[in-house]
Amino acid sequence: MFMKERLNTLISSVVAYAPKADVALIRRAYDFAESHHGDQKRSSGEPYITHPLAVAEILASFKLDVPSIAAGLLHDTIEDTSATLEDIRKEFGKEIEILVQGVTKLARIEVQSNVTQQAENFRKLVLAMSDDIRVLLIKLCDRLHNMRTIEHLPMEGARRRISLETLEIYAPLAERMGMNSLQEELQDLSFAQLNPDAYQSIVERIQHLHQLDKNTTALLIKDLQYILKKEGIQADVVGREKRPYSIWKKMQRKNVTFEQLSDVIAFRILVDSVADCYQCLGLIHSEYFVIPGRFKDYISTPKPNNYRSLHTHVIGPNQHQIEIQIRTWDMQKTSEYGVAGHWKYKQGLSSKKGTQYPWIRGLLDILKNASEADEFLENTKLEMFQDQVFCFTPRGDLISLPRGSTPVDFAYAVHSDLGDKCRGAKINGKLMPLRTELRNGDQIEILSSPLQTPSPTWERFVVTGRAKAHIRRFIRARKFSQFSTLGKSLLLREIKDSGEVLEVHLKKVLEHFEVKTLEELYARVGEGLLNAGEIIKISRVKQKNQGVEEGEDIPQALSIKPSKAKEALEIQGLIPGMAVHFAGCCHPLPGEPITGVVNTGKGITIHTSACELLEQFEKEPKRIIDVAWGSASSVEHVGRLFVMLSNKAGSLGTLTTLIGKNEGNIINLKITRRHYDFFDMIIDINVRDLDHLQHILASLRACGIVNTAERV
Ligand code: MN
Fold first, then answer.
1. Would you place residue 354 in the very low, low, confident or very high pLDDT band (cuts 50, 70, 90)?
2. Is 704 helix (H, G, I), strand (E, B) or coil?
């Protein structure tokens, strides 16, 4: 019954700072966790329940509220047992469910790649996923207990990975929240794993120096106490060994050996008021030799995480350099508990974010101002991270994107080439549409193909400027080249009537039309902004006026040969959607006569020659051009059918199966009317050409349930 005793001790420690705490709730959470973890064991061989219990104990040491303590007890039940979030909600309510869910989510984003390079992004990801700051506190306490017991993990690789993650991600988060003691312990535990030799030798040296300086330390404490008492200042003086990891950092930072590091013991003076702090400082500075340049006033200028203290270095007894920190009890509490120290226990109040928890605001301010790394990034607020989403590459690199981003944004963020060649995406191993909105922690694999090019439709759903710019640039370039090809064809066609025109002469009219290159001239014709006939006319006038200049090699300049011009413009090779559009009114198909209409700024729209819409262009004959299908194009065309179908079970299935069997891909289907015995519907089908469509129509008509089938 050892565990029950620990539970009782936990409960009494909670009641000590929160007399009205819901003790029964804590007991229920414990029972739930214990029965669900059952006889699961930790690597150490201890019952699993010892871990959540220890986490709850650590949370209680920070005086956290009952929901946090309960969530601490329950935090591994979702990940490791048969319990579900719904069970948690039913048993313990929404608030605790959200906390447990938050910790569970965090457990699933293990650091996957080189931590150091991406540490800042990971810290942000952790913050972004901790919607409630208590989630982060529980996670930190969970990590602390795991680090305290890490030597039981059998695999060295796992120990190293977890330690590195702790050092790079969680210790800095603890620091930013001002929880110094938590931060220091996490650092030392990680350091011991990551660099056991250095850790061991520093620990031994500290002990050695401590033995040597034992008398000095005692002497100095006595001295300080005497000096302060003489002036009537109430103060506690403690000598405190510096932590191995902070010594190690100092050795690296200052490039000194351990022998040269003299101040391994820091002295701390704790007083009641800020005024006392400065008075202490004055007394010490008049009593000891002060080392210049080492004095720091974090009271008038607190550290970003709200750390406040005076630091000074003096030469003490035996010519030892010593560091003295002077602060109030209040400042000490802040430096140990950080955010948790701001905790005001409020029994029975609902937890509406930001109102009941004023310390959340405090934390936001801390995070806002914290960290040098952040200064390179525009946004540091916790709220701002909510506007971001963090996703992994298959290699485990972390990519940060604005919220609402899609796999296309992700692809462009990785590399612009990957964006341009992107044809699909797997999100967490599953093939998903490119427009899918990404979520925190998603792993994205971009499928690419060298044949793929950016699609204009992407522009509608991408959110990053980078993706937008690349897509637009690509489309602009492609439009230009297509309009240019089209324009050149239109000019070629015109030459048929006008006789020979030399490219050199076309070049001479560039200025007249205010364009710089021939391609630009062609593009303007293709776009319908310039008229081909007009250009030829002006060009011929110029030709007549100026004649061909002497010395010009006329035959070679002949780049446009009228003999090559065809009567009708072939639309083959012009990709629909840019310079050429197929009319939505008549859905022309390869194999039937077509007519083109030039639209200013939009290129050419292709109608069937029988389309009624063409009548309205009779007054503008210049806009009408002869076009013809080129040889087999790979582009899919839309055929629109009207079908009247028997209204009975399964008939729609029969119809679609039939179309499918004939290799028609239905892209749209709309029921326009429903009679007692028949359905009217419009079906759009992707087909190769007119023959293909007629083949499908014939098979439909041959089918018993189809009353009518015809092209619209
Ligand atoms: Mn855990």
1. very low
2. coil
The boundaries of the domain holding residue 599 are: 580-628
> What mean pLDDT do residues 350-376 have?
39
Identify the band that residue 186 occupies on the pLDDT scale cut at 50, 70 and 90.
very high
The answer for residues whose C-beta is within 8 angstroms of residue 149's C-beta and 6 or more apart is 42, 43, 44, 51
Is 586:611 a contact under the CB 8 Å cutoff? yes
Phi, psi at residue 490, to the nearest 5°?
A: -65, -40
Encode pLDDT of 603-625 as tens digits. 788 888 888 888 888 787 777 87
Cβ-contact 641, 683 below 8 angstroms:
yes
Which DSSP category does 288 fall into? S
Nearest to 263 by CA among 308, 309, 318, 302: 318
Looking at 321, 337, 353, which one is the last position of a domain? 337
Exposure pattern of 39-67 as b/e (b: 16+ CB <10 Å)?
eeebeeeebbbbbbbbbbbbbbebbbbbb
| CATH assignment of the domain containing 19 | 1.10.3210.10
Residues 6+ apart with CB under 8 A from 29: 69, 70, 71, 73, 74, 92, 96
Query: How many of the other CB atoms lie within 10 Å of CB of 660?
Result: 12
CA of 159 to the centre of ligand 1 (A): 15
Please indicate, yes or no, whether residues 6 and 147 belong to a single structural domain of this protein: yes
Q: Domain check: are 268 and 286 in the same one?
A: yes
Calculate how far, in angstroms, residue 75's C-alpha sits from the geometric centre of ligand 1.
Answer: 6
Q: What's the confidence (pLDDT) of residue 114? A: 62
Q: What is the pLDDT of residues 100-146, one digit of tens each?
A: 998 888 887 765 656 666 777 777 777 767 667 788 889 999 999 99
Å from CA of 26 to ligand 1 middle: 17
Where does the pLDDT of residue 517 fall: very low under 50, low under 70, confident under 90, or very high at 90 and above? confident
**Cβ contact 604:570 at 8 Å:** no
Question: What torsion do the CA atoms of 407, 412, 418, 422 make, to the nearest 10 degrees?
Answer: 40
Residues measured by CB to lie within 5 Å of ligand 1, the ion: 76, 142
Q: For the chain, what is the mean pLDDT? A: 80
Active site residue ranges: 79-80
Dihedral of CA atoms 644, 648, 650, 655 in degrees, nearest 10, equals -10
Q: Are residues 280 and 136 in the same domain?
A: no
Distance 338 CA to ligand 1 centre (A): 22
Other beta carbons within 10 Å of 499: 9
Is it the case that residue 356 has pLDDT exceeding 70? no
Q: What stretch of H or E contains 663? A: none
Helix, strand, or coil (residue 6): helix
581, containing H or E segment: strand 580-582
Q: Please, what's the largest Cα pairwise distance for the chain?
A: 115
- The one-letter amino acid at 456: P
Between residues 443 and 600, the one the model is more confident about? 443
Structural domain tally of the chain?
Answer: 5
**DSSP label at residue 47:** B
pTM exceeds 0.70: no
Residue 605 C-alpha to ligand 1 middle, in angstroms? Answer: 64
**H-type helices in 231-306, by residue range?**
244-254, 274-287
Q: Are residues 623 and 641 in the same domain?
A: no
Judgement on whether residues 186 and 51 belong to the same structural domain of the protein: yes
The mean-pLDDT minimum among 173-187, 253-267, 270-284, 631-645 falls in 253-267
In three-state secondary structure terms, 620 is coil
C-alpha 68 to ligand 1 mean position (Å): 14
**208 in helix, strand or coil?**
helix
* Residues 530 and 594 placed together within one structural domain of the fold: no
- For residue 171, the CA-to-ligand 1 centroid distance in Å is 17
Q: Which pLDDT band holds residue 362 (cuts at 50, 70, 90)?
A: very low
Are residues 42 and 156 part of one domain?
Answer: yes
Closest CA to 175 of 344, 346, 336: 336
